[in-house]
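A quick aside before the break. I want you to see a complete sequence-to-structure record at least once, exactly as it would be stored in a machine-readable document. Don't worry about memorizing anything.
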Amino acid sequence: MAGLPSSETVQWSSKFAFTMAAVGSSVGLGNLWRFSAELGTNGGAAFLVVYIACIIFVGIPVLMSEFMIGRAGLASSAVGSQTDLAIRSNVSKGWSGGAWFGMIASFLIVSFYCVVAAWVLNYLVRFLGNGFQGLSAESIAQQFPDMLADPLGKESGVVKAVWPYFFIFAGITTWLVARGVNKGIETAAKLLMPLFFILLIGLAAYSLITGMQSGGTAQAFSFMFTPDFSKITPAVATSALGQACFSIGIGNAIMITYGSYLPRSVSIPKAAVTISLVDTLVAITAGLAIFPIVFTHGLNSAGGAGLFFQTLPTALADFWYIGAAFFFLAFFAAITSSVSLLEPSVAYVAEKFKLTKAKAAWLTGGAITFVGLFSLMSPAFFDFIDTGLAGPILAPLSALLIVLFTGWRLSKTIIAQEIAGEGEALGRFILFFVKYVAPLFMGFVLVRGILQRYFGI
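That is the input. The structure line, written in C-alpha cells, reads:
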C-alpha cells in the first residue's frame, strides 16, 4: 500500500498529545450547541439515559474499531488503511466504503461546521462590544434569524455580517491542518483543550452558584437527572444515538485517520473508553453550565438550536463578560473539532496525489470553503447537508460498515495484535458489542433516520 513520503509520515508525539487531540475532536460544538438543544427538546434526563447507553454499547465499540483500522492499516488515510486491511484479510476492497462514506461525511460536516463557528464568532464579537445590553428579549431572539437571513450584512452592516467570520474560521482551520499533525493539530489541542476545560468548569460553577437562590439549579438538576421513562420514544432513541455518534465523532473517518498516527504503546481499548468518558462528562458539564441559567430566567428549555444563540444571549444580555466567556468556550471547542473534520480529506489527498500536507490542506480547505458558502447563503442547503445527508445517511452508514468489517471480516490475527497488551481483556469484551450489538443499533439509526427525514415515518 503506497503511503505518504517518509518526511510526512508522523505519529503523535506522546500519549497525552494523542488524548488531547482525540478528545478535542470529540469535544466540540456537538457538546455545547447541539447536545443542549437535543437534551432540551427530547425529555431531558430520559434523553440522557439513552444517550449514555448509546455511548457505552455503540460509541465505544465503533470508536475502538476505527482506532484499530487506522493503526493496523499501512497507510496514512482512512480509505488507504481500510483498503489495505481488506486486502490483507482476503476480503473485497469494497469494504473500504466504510472509510469512503466517513470521509465524505466529515468533508460535508466541516463545510457547514465553519458556518456554525462563524455564528459563534459573530456573537462573541457582539458580546465583547456589549451589543445585547438594554435590548428586549424579543429583540435579542430576533437577531439570530435576522443574521441567518442576512449573512452578507446588507441590512445590518459588516460588523453583524457572518461572512467575514466564516472565512476567518475556515482559514484558521486550514492553516492548522497545513502545519501538520505535530505542529498544527497537536499544538492546538494541547493549548486549547486545557483552557477549554478550565473555562467550562468555571462557567458551570458560576451557573450553578447563581442559580441556587432562584431555584434554577434545582430545576436544572431535576430536568437533567430525574428521568421520566415514558418520554423515551423511538424518535428520542434515534436522536440520542445520532447525537452520540456526532459528539464522539464516529462514522466520519476522523478516528481512523487519527489511529494511523497512533503509536503501539497506546492501548486502543482503554483509549476508546477514556475518550468516550471524557466526551460524555463534558456534555453533562455543558448542560450544567447552560440549564441553570435557562431555568433561572424562566426561559424555554426546549428551544432547540436557538437555545445557544437566542436563549443564552437573552439571559446574559446584562452580563457581557459571562456571555463572551461562553462563546470563547464554543470557539475553542469548534476549532479543535474542525481541524479533525478536515484531516481525513487532507490525509487522503496527500496520500493519493503524493502532495505535501500543506499543499493538500490548502487545496482541500479551499474546497470546503467553497461548499460551505452554499450553507452560509442557504439555510435549506445547510439543513440538507446536516440533517438530510451527512447526519442520517453517510455517518451512520460509515459506522455500520466499520463495525461489520471489524467484527466479521477483519483478520482475527490483526485484531489480536491491535488489542494485545494492556487492556486486552477490555478489548475482547468490547469486541462482543462490535460484532453483535453496534451493527444492530447503527442499522436502526440509519433506517430510522432515512424514514423519518424522507418519509415522515
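Two observations worth writing down. The domain at 6-455 is CATH 1.10.4160 (Hydantoin permease). The chain has one domain: 6-455. We'll return to this after the break.
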